[in-house]
Inverse folding.
């Protein structure tokens, strides 16, 4: 019998398994406060595509390496020499429409990379600490659950570099917090806001006293709790919640009925109910 294939190795992310069925993804560019360059978001898509299909993963924890930052967003110095200031061959000038199409395709690919977190079939909890700027908001709004350390400092930073946030924040943040006035406040001003304000508006569901170590520890506890549930039930719940968020109630009810007409046939239902009646911890097969 062949051993299972080894987990892939990544340049800008570390992948560990602190407890059974929990995968911990750590953004790893601490020397630059985990700021993103293009190879990083391309690699991010690969990480979450792998975890989405990995039967040994039921929950994903996402955090940032180093004590100072979850991520400070786009590496503006590098981006200013590339994506924010694309080089045009002066010997073969490109007209505005063609330049716009090329930029649109690039932005769409960038968006798709970050959206891989939301597309991941497994629930993702984002455990944030320190500086969480710009792209940090795009990334965390793709997660299913957000918690932060008490030292977290947030900002929708894009207007300060002369552009409207275009990787997901303006589309997802209003649905996350449900307060359009506050969303416009932070997006138009790029002002800093802290952990307690983030919790007050519902951007995060919990604040952990301390920094990186403390919030990661709390994130692992939540991930371990969810990983012990039926993967059929958990992944179905994520799918149905995301669908219902983007569709009318009637459509959500219909989709839920169709979904569960198949999923209720799973052995996990009997396993969970029997374990509950016997007051035992259920064990579920890999999915």
């Amino acid at each position: 019998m062949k051993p299972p294939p080894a987990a892939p190795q990544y340049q800008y992310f570390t992948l560990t398994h602190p407890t059974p069925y929990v995968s911990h993804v750590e953004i790893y560019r601490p020397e630059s406060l985990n700021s993103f360059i293009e190879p990083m978001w391309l690699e991010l898509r690969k990480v979450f595509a792998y975890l989405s299909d990995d039967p040994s993963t039921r929950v994903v924890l996402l955090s940032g390496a180093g004590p100072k930052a979850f991520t400070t967003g786009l590496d503006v110095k590098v981006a200013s020499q590339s994506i924010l200031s694309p080089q045009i061959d002066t010997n073969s000038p490109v007209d505005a429409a063609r330049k716009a199409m090329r930029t649109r395709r690039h932005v769409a690919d960038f968006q798709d990379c970050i959206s891989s977190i939301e597309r991941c079939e497994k629930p993702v909890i984002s455990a944030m600490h320190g500086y969480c700027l710009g792209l940090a908001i795009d990334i965390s709004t793709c997660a299913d659950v957000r918690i932060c350390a008490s030292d977290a400092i947030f900002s929708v930073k894009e207007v300060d570099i002369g552009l409207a946030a275009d990787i997901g924040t303006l589309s997802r943040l209003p649905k996350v917090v449900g307060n359009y006035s506050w969303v416009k406040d932070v997006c138009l001003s790029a002002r800093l806001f802290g952990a307690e304000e983030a919790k007050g508006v519902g951007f995060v569901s919990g604040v952990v006293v301390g920094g990186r170590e403390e919030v990661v520890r709390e994130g692992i506890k939540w991930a371990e709790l969810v990983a012990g549930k039926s993967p059929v039930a958990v992944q179905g719940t994520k799918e149905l919640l995301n669908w219902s968020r983007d569709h009318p109630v009637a459509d959500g009810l219909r989709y839920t009925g169709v979904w569960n007409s198949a999923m209720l046939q799973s052995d996990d239902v009997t396993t969970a109910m029997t374990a509950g009646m016997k007051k035992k911890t259920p064990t579920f097969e890999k999915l």
Summary: Residues 96-119 form the longest helix (24 residues). The CA atoms of residues 244 and 252 lie 5 Å apart.
